[in-house]
Design goal:
The protein is mainly β. The chain is built from 3 helices and 9 strands.
């Protein structure tokens, strides 16, 4: 755990960049993740890969929705006076925040990098499970690496990993 620039607690995960925590969702509609206040919706495109560290399982999925939300509906109809930059900074990440929806597709081994068979995700992570951007190692574990029997077809969005 660490503290963000705004003083909020964030979770450091091995491999990928911490994004936020699970706050709801379903297997069919996707898992809703409330973003950390230092994670911008502008940096998380639809189609990017995410790993969710559950209590007993690691889930590999894809972002299929990016959303802005507020804790108070009045902020949508009567936005705060933002002439003072401090007001926007205080509201951002607390009263106004971002969420992403991730469709879990596969279960990964609990320990990143351990060789094991991947299985389809048939359940969802628990509330407050931590989510991070998938690391290059996570993507390689799912898609494999180029060798004399496999060829590369491209790279995932916003990543260096070759799949």
């Amino acid at each position: 755990m660490s503290t963000s620039d705004k003083g909020a607690l964030t979770f450091d995960l091995p491999g990928g960049v911490s994004l936020g925590v699970v706050v709801g969702g379903s297997l069919s509609e996707g898992i809703e993740i409330k973003l950390n206040d230092d994670a911008s919706v502008e940096d998380i495109p639809v189609g990017s890969y995410v790993v969710i560290q559950g209590e007993k399982k690691r889930f590999f999925g894809m972002v299929n929705e990016v959303r802005l939300a507020t804790t108070d509906a009045r902020l949508r109809t009567t936005p705060a006076n933002l002439t003072a930059p401090y007001v926007a900074e205080v509201l951002s990440g607390t009263a106004a925040y971002g969420t992403i929806t991730v469709r879990p597709r596969l279960l990964l081994p609990m320990i990143a990098g351990v060789e094991a068979d991947l299985a389809p995700a048939r359940t969802v992570p628990a509330h407050f499970a931590r989510a991070s951007k998938a690391s290059n190692a996570d993507v390689a574990q799912v898609f494999g690496v180029e060798d004399d029997r496999h060829f590369a077809v491209g790279t995932p969005l916003d990543m260096e990993a070759v799949v």
